[in-house]
Target: Dihydroflavonol 4-reductase
Amino acid sequence: MKSQTRARERERERERERERERMSGEGKVVCVTGASGFIASWLVNLLLQRGYTVKASVRNINDQRKTEHLLALDGAKERLHLFQADLLEEGSFDSIVDGCEGVFHTASPVQFSVCDPQDHFVQIIYVSSAQETDALGLTLACNGLTDLLRSLTLAELIDPALKGTINVLRSCAKVPSVKRVVLTSSLAAVTFNRKMLIPGVLVDETWFSDPLFCEESKLWYQLSKTLAEEAAWKFAKEYGIDMVTINPGWVIGPLLQPTVNSTVEVVLNLINGAKSFPNATYRWVDVRDVANAHIQAFEIPSASGRYCVVHKAAHFSEVVRILHELYPALDLPDKQDDSTRLQLGYHVVNEKAKSLGIDFTPLEVSLKDTVESLKEKNFLAV
Model:
């Protein structure tokens, strides 16, 4: 009888703890930039669940495809306020961060357009979530150009990414209410240097990508993320901003937004008739864990520095095997594309991320929830 009483008490205490967690943000106001993105949408969702009032910025407040899913979230009617802001316009975030205790800067420039000397139009699309590989870090679409990068200056590619981050931090520096900034960086700002990435190597938060190496290797996305984080740390130190960065790996999981982002598209391609899978090992993590890491990094007073948020490294052959076990009827690729560059199985240490209380979602669950979300939103080929 006593043991049953103690068990009931423990369960009541756990329920009280869950309730405290659910309402830990009650009465607090925070800002989320780039709120319509994959990670940011989940971040807004979890913040609302915890009772926060969220001031969320989007590039076009009249674009329903960017806002409708946010306005439909539980708690959005009472505590979500949408604002239009331009990352590249200094002062654009002043009124948004005013009155906020925390600022989550997830946004990054998504598209730049430049012209070469022959007036060929070039469109450069930057994905807004963390990327590991140069192949998917930057998508180039050009008309009549055989060597695009020769026609672009470094400033045209990199300056906008830097300027957007600094503009948000500059707005934060003007507002006494802001207690902490949580910056969404990337594993791209961690692992791209001259160190040997071979099995057995342990990568952690002390690693930094080398801008010169990225430039020499034409890894423009990695260069932009590296320089943006570097500039953010310098600015934060100079202006006394309490800043933490989240550096996620390859982010998958269920979609809240109505579009497929680039990291989830990798899974979509596998299940939508791909003939082969890449000879690559990615560092996978669930979007819900990444969003939670942002919140914990804000809420835990002792949180500081960088956090590599990665669940596990897995080769695509393992991913395909898991998908086949989950969905045997799917037409999955059964051969490896050996023309792709081998991505080796180095290990990213996630102990610091676990110190935030992150209980990582198993890869099997992340993949299943990703596929179910894609099915629900009718992205699977019939």
